[in-house]
Specification:
Strand order of the largest sheet: 22-23-1-24
Oligomer: single chain
Number of helices: 14
Shape: elongated
Radius of gyration: 21 Å
Structural class: alpha/beta
Strand content: 25-35%
Bound molecules: uridine-diphosphate-2(N-acetylglucosaminyl) butyric acid
Distance between the termini: 6 Å
Helix content: 25-40%
Largest sheet: 4 strands, mixed
Amino acid sequence: MARIQIEGGVPLEGSVQISGAKNAVLPILMASLLSKQPCRLKNVPHLKDVTTTIELLAQMGAVVGLADQFTIELVADSVSHQEAPYELVKTMRASILVLGPLVARFGRAKVSLPGGCAIGARPVDQHLKGLEALGASVRVESGYIQATADRLKGAKIVLDTATVTGTENLMMAAVLAEGETLIENAAQEPEVVDLANCLISMGAEISGAGSNCIRIQGQAELAGYDYSVLADRIEAGTFLVAAAMTGGHVQARGAVPDTLDSVLQKLEQSGADISTGEHWIELNMHGRRPKAVDVSTAPFPGFPTDMQAQFTALNAIADGTGIVRENVFENRFMHVLELQRLGADMRLEGNTVIIRGVPKLTGAPLMATDLRASASLVLAGLVASDSTIIDRVYHIDRGYENIEEKLGQLGARIKRLPAG
Ligand code: EPU
């Protein structure tokens, strides 16, 4: 398996282009199932999860092609096979996002039940409850969710928890249902809003996306889309933390500041100077060591769980003691044991990790465990003395486009080693 090698100690300097958001691209690609007409998605990042999604849609009978390096064209007029098999779902939980569109347009779907996951149990009960409220009959058999319906009917759905992909799945189901749907306690993440904007461009009637109550008037059919996806706030946040940890000065081009308020606030608390424009964010640490910050994860607009591991790494080398609390997933601290191998002083207590910053980490071989945990190991490697080698980097490739190239452009000494 490929590995990444980092020689730490270089302050990052320069400007980096932020890619399209993984967690917006995936649902928007799935939304192509809602229409017979051609769809075109621009600003698509080169990620393993995008490849998996294309494979999934193609297996169903959608015709998928590349218009250029960052543009995907899809036509789902001859989908013959409304199924997401275990082989694909086990590599990408977001495959569950075909459920809503398939039931809404074809009246049937068979989707493997995602199992447990490295960061927590991650049930999908809210997706299923919502579909049932819309009139689908849903059963779980032999590891598969089987859902059938004539035409879905609009309903009021109150989610028990503000699930991101659950909200997206139900929004995609409701746009083709008969009548009005209200999703209460909806997720408010920018990726939900991006999906809603794309659906609106297809002719859907949706209001309230970005608030906790989304109202949808179902349509008999939808047109295709020609849409450009939002920039990835988590990729941007990760590069900004890298700049802060190394005492550097980095501009994230394309990043949308409004999607990162809680993260930018924490970076300022840690001593960074932040400046922003409509489509860029710049962080200057002026060579200073970051100060420790407390972080407590929450649904948007709270501090994102997808940035928790990166701030845990920042606290590892910060001045002072930081407390990081994970409230969204129950087991999202796999990086802690690896960071300790570099000399981090961290104590894990339930859903909280208490971090006493040390002036220096020392490089070591490390194992990537999940996507964001892996990113935190890369960040730690950027400040560790000597060499850090991270194994199983396929986790990083699921969500970061060319991370070693982009960090290399900012001056990091980082390279990918062939499998060994
Ligand atoms: N939950 C339930 N029942 C459900 C659905 C969720 O109890 O039916 C719980 C989960 O177990 C969790 C909480 O609700 O405790 C929130 O989970 P959510 O459903 O919002 O997460 P998700 O939709 O599965 C998306 C992102 C994740 C991101 C989370 C939280 C995608 C494809 N994935 O997952 O991204 O961490 O929202 O913001 O959008 C990543 O990119 O690394 C990643 C894991």
